[in-house]
Amino acid sequence: MAKARESISASAAPIVLDLCSGTGDLAIDLHERLRIPVVASDFCHPMLVRSLAKMRHARIQDSTPVIEADSLTLPFAERTFDVATVAFGLRNLEDPVQGLGEMK
Ligand SMILES: C[S@@+](CC[C@H](N)C(=O)[O-])C[C@H]1O[C@@H](n2cnc3c(N)ncnc32)[C@H](O)[C@@H]1O
C-alpha cells in the first residue's frame, strides 16, 4: 500500500484525492473515465486491501495509489491535489466541518 503521493510519477495532469474511498469504486471510475491519477484514501485498512485488489485487477494500481489516512488529519501538504472528491463519506466523519476544512 502506498504511503505517500510520490508513488505517482510526475505528471502535468490534474491529480485527484478521493477521500473516504472505501473499496475504491469512485477512484476507479474517475480514473477510467478521465485517465488522470487518482489517490484513494481511507482509514479502514480492510477496505483498502479490497480497493488495492480491484486496482490490481484493473491493472491501474500505478496511477491509483491507495493510501491509509484519516480524512480529519490528512498527511499531505497544501495544494498537493487539484481536486478532492468524497462519496457517501462526509456523513461518516466524526466532524464533517473539519473534514471539509481538510479537503479545502
Ligand atoms: C459509506 S463508505 C463510502 C465508501 C466509498 N466512497 C463509496 O462510495 O463506496 C464510507 C467510508 O468512509 C470511511 N471513513 C469514515 N471516517 C473516515 C475518516 N475519518 N478517515 C478516513 N476514512 C473514513 C470509512 O472507512 C468508509 O470506507
Explain the overall architecture.
By secondary structure, this protein is an alpha/beta fold. It has one domain: Rossmann fold (3-Layer(aba) Sandwich). It has three helices and four strands, in the order E-H-E-H-E-E-H. It has a four-stranded parallel beta sheet, covered by helices on one side. Bound molecules: S-adenosylmethionine (SAM). The site of S-adenosylmethionine has 17 residues, from helix 1.
Briefly summarize what is shown.
By secondary structure, this protein is an alpha/beta fold.
List descriptors.
3 helices; four-stranded parallel β-sheet; binds S-adenosylmethionine; Rossmann fold; alpha/beta; 104 residues
User: What is the total domain count?
Assistant: 1
Instruction: Give the termini distance in whole angstroms.
Output: 25 Å
The description of the largest β-sheet is: 4 strands, parallel
Give the integer mean of the pLDDT values.
91
* Structural class by SSE content: alpha/beta
